[in-house]
Amino acid sequence: MNNLNNRLKKALDERKQQHRYRSRRISEGPQQVEMQIDDKDIISFSSNDYLGLANHPQIKQAMIDGVKNYGVGSGAAHLVNGHSRAHHLLEEELAEFTGYPRALLFSTGYMANLGVCQALLDKNDFVFEDRLNHASLIDGGLLSGARFQRYLHNDVSSLQKKLDKAAGTVTDKQHTKLVLTDGVFSMDGDIADLPPLSDLCNKTASWLMVDDAHGFGTLGRTGRGSLQHYSLDHNDVPIYMATLGKAIGTAGAFIAGSDELIETIIQQARTYIYTTAMPAAIAEATRCSLKLIQNETVHLDKLNHNIHYFRKCCDEASLSIENSQTAIQPLLIGDDENAMSISHLLFEQGFLVTAIRPPTVPEGTSRLRITLSAKHQKAHIDKLIETLSSMIETDT
Fold first, then answer.
1. Total domain count for the chain?
2. Cβ atoms of 353 and 381 closer than 8 Å
3. What is the DSSP string of 304-351?
4. 375 falls within a domain
5. Owning domain of residue 376
6. Contacts 24+ apart (CB under 8 A), 96-100
């Protein structure tokens, strides 16, 4: 045991020396823009609570009422006796909201992505992934056992070459070809070029799956995500995944698709069959959040206003922010130590802005990942820009 601990300590020390050691901070109170973290008053620019709904009084009350009606835990998997009326109604409402025939709840987005890949693919199949996909999509593709390939980021021609090559290596035309992409890429904030991806998949008899964790609730005229952003529907993207713990403000995830797809996942996805269902109270809170998003457009309007205002301020301050039109606004730093140093200095000045380093992002692209919320005020953004500008000038 001592030898094992010594080995682990050496690896941890090396990670610290590389400025890639990860540490947790302790927050007090609810998820919101102004927080107390590590006993310090902080303005957060690191949350994925894009619409500011995680602490909404109506959603909190819906969850409290859900606990009163259903208790705290669900007690079992969906296929045993953990599937409540609240879960079932939420699935129907998610299907209606996204325009798909069916929706299926999962406890997390990670489990949803692993479950779909495992349910649909085997060693005779092919899976193609954008090079900058989220780790859960990468792991899902790898663990499926299918022949795994990655195409250049947001590059349809690169994908076409790989699909064409795959077609020439098999004689059995019944093999499955699954193309996986983020809707909004979580570390860059750019949006997948879905229309040509969908066209290519249709031409090559490939399935297209979109992980819209960061687009659901934030993109499109009414927040229906990256498909609405491009005026696409379930015929264009047969498999749709989104999480509920970001713009929706609660927890969990879902897969949307055809009746046959959902039934197949229910029968074959190990991460669905062999895990406890999310608490029904969370399902009730999510149902409330969906209603708010549809009835109160002010949340999405304010988020879009803040995105435009932030980018305008960065341009005026000559801050080289990446080309993102979403709530994710990366400021590329490059060097790991430098990114950590600026993040630490920002915290000392009262801002939480997370430094993202490899392996989460490619080597040499460490960055400050600034995320915007509908709850940010003009003064919050002005103060961050002013502080960042002085630090970047000092650093350079």
1. 2
2. no
3. HHHHHHHHHHHHHTT--B-S--SSEEEEEEE-HHHHHHHHHHHHHTTE
4. yes
5. 23-50+297-395
6. 97/224, 97/290, 97/294, 98/224, 98/225, 98/227, 98/234, 98/240, 98/242, 98/256, 99/224, 99/227, 99/233, 99/234, 100/234, 100/240, 100/256, 100/257, 100/258
This model's pTM is above 0.90: yes
DSSP state of 276: B
Own/partner contacts of 259-263, CB < 8 Å, gap of 24 or more, are 259/101, 259/102, 261/102, 262/101, 262/102, 262/103, 262/104
Q: Is pLDDT at 134 greater than 70 in this prediction?
A: yes
- Of the pLDDT bands very low, low, confident and very high (cuts 50, 70, 90), residue 170 is low
Residues in contact with 67: Cβ distance below 8 Å, sequence separation at least 6, in sequence order: 279, 281
Residues 306 and 265 in one domain: no
User: What's the DSSP call for residue 36?
Assistant: E
Q: Are 46 and 354 in contact (CB under 8 A)?
A: yes
The β-bridge partners of 150 are 129
Mean of per-residue pLDDT scores for the chain:
95
Question: How far apart are the C-alpha atoms of 387 and 390, rounded to whole Å?
Answer: 5
> Who has greater pLDDT, 295 or 20?
295
Each residue of 233-271: pLDDT tens digit? 999 999 999 999 999 999 999 999 999 999 999 999 999
3-state SS, residue 174: coil
